Amino acid sequence: MLTVPAFIDLHVHLREPGQTHKGDIAHETRAALAGGFRTVLAMPNTLPPPDTPERFRQLQRLLEEKAACRAIPCACMTQDRAGRRPAPLPALREAGAMAFSDDGSTTQDCAVMREVAWMAAQVDAPLVDHCEDGPSSREGEIRMVERDILLAQETGARFHLQHLSAREAVELLRQARRDGLPVTGEATPHHLALTSAALERWGADAKMAPPLREEADRLALVQAVAEGVITVIATDHAPHSPEEKALPFPQAPNGILGLESAFSVCNRVLVKSGAMSLEALLERLTTGPAQVLGLPLPQETIDLEPEGDFPIPPPRFSRARNSPWTGFPGWGRILPPRA
Description:
single chain, alpha/beta, five-stranded parallel β-sheet, three-stranded antiparallel β-sheet, 13 helices, 11 strands
């Protein structure tokens, strides 16, 4: 058994308010605790979205009331997450916002994103950007990563690139960090462990945005995480109802669960495989995300078993069940909190 600092997840969907048929704050933060996470950054795709100081404070109060762990609300980059007009970033920052994102609907308007970036630089808070165009294409991801890196260079704003999936995007991030630009990136357990072949087995339960890609992309992500080019592992935990995931594949929503299984999946793919050390993996789950938000490492600790075959059980704490991980050969596990 090892006792280590508690994990931080920069990419979690809690679904409340507005989408509690998918998940809710209480259930999803209990899933976070089960996975070793004591701090999560809650994405702003709520109804209504936190795009004004008043809405942000309302969400903050709701999280404080209901969350089982520390849940930090991420404020919007644009009004109503619509990508047409910047949100009032300085006022949101004054209200307590630590980061800004439009999550899955990042603006495609470069002029709007430039204005957002100038404001983010002014208030010294990161832009947590979902680097995709509408169709989730490889080319769209590359184009958005290129845009964000150029804006980081132009404005000095800090960009954190969410859930990279394409090897070309990884190379762009590598060069940006070599150039000393304020750009960081994250990888998810599913993009590190799975490829598009998973769709044949799990169907919509392996449907996500960005999509699972090819083995060469997966290996590029593994290498980048091992080298420290990608400094953050984040789950993109995205609960959906069984009825939604049962829709025909084109209509089924993107996203899978990830909080309860993240450590065991990543420990198998990254440490058991010999790609990196356990210490480095723990840094990607603690130090890396803390640095993005400017947080100290959590004082809370968790216990884990670093080795051993532990097939991942079905989701236990999330309200949803949309997971391809059941039965996955996890390596190591998070232990329950001590009594």
